[in-house]
Request: fold
Amino acid sequence: MAGTFTNLQYHLVFSTKAWRPSISDAIRPRLYEYMGGIVRTAKGIVYEIGGMADHVHLLIRWRADKSVSDLLRDLKSNSSRWVHETFPNKKTFAWQDGYGAFTVSQSRSADVKAYIADQPRRHRKFDFKAEFIGLLQAHGVEYDERYIWK
Reply:
């Protein structure tokens, strides 16, 4: 074959340090735009970004030649630094270690996009921890709950 053809879509999920409600309505749209810029600068495509005060979801299309873990490292470190520089009263802002990264088929992409956009309504029923456990279970990821919430 003369070329490489991929459609690698990921649903990425990560939380603020200690699940503090650090993403206020005042910074949320600017933070999401900044995070989208990080993905686009790295030659990825952003389909949706959303979340709540204590966590973020992204639906992206990513490159075959770059690791998801490198993207998450850059995304979290650069956005955290940006928050500190842009919002001086947010010097304690930080992301929790770790993340969830789930593959998404093209046939389910619209469903995941809607899921992310619907975060405020969804979280009237349950918190981030319950949501994350549900995502792990839905994607068949083995886990020991004793080690998730460190």
Remarks:
- The domain at 8-141 is CATH 3.30.70.1290 (Alpha-Beta Plaits).
- The first helix runs from residue 28 to 41.
- The beta strands are 8-15, 45-52, 55-62, 100-104.
